[in-house]
Amino acid sequence: MPILLAGLDDCLLGKVYPLPNEEGIPVALYSGDMIAARIRDQEHLSHAEALAFVTDRIELNYLGPGTPRICWAATSEDFGEIVNSK
Fold it and tell me: Is 80 within a domain?
């Protein structure tokens, strides 16, 4: 059963399905940026401290099957060279 993060429904983006060659169940997908902004404001942290909290305490915390995934905003520049898939 997918695991949901308590009190963060407004940061929920959707669900992620395993790839055809992977085993698993669909899991919840949350916005790391939205969670970090909330924690920053509630706990009066710096932006960097809030990002570190989300990464260390949520994103890297494996809770077993159904563990939620975190998605971060990005631009194509974050990935370097773009390869044409055609």
Answer: no
**Does pTM surpass 0.90?**
no
The tally of domains found in the chain comes to: 1
Distance CA 84, CA 71 (A): 23
pLDDT digits (tens, 9 = 90+) for 29-72: 999 999 999 999 999 999 999 999 999 999 999 998 899 999 99
Q: How far is CA 9 from the centre of its chain?
A: 13
Q: How many other CB atoms sit within 10 Å of the CB of residue 11?
A: 20
Tell me whether residue 20 is in a domain.
Answer: yes
What's the burial of 29, exposed, middle or buried (CB within 10 Å: 0-12/13-18/19+)? Answer: middle
In sequence order, which residues have a C-beta less than 8 Å from that of residue 29 and are 6 or more positions away? Answer: 12, 13, 14, 15, 16, 68, 69, 70, 71
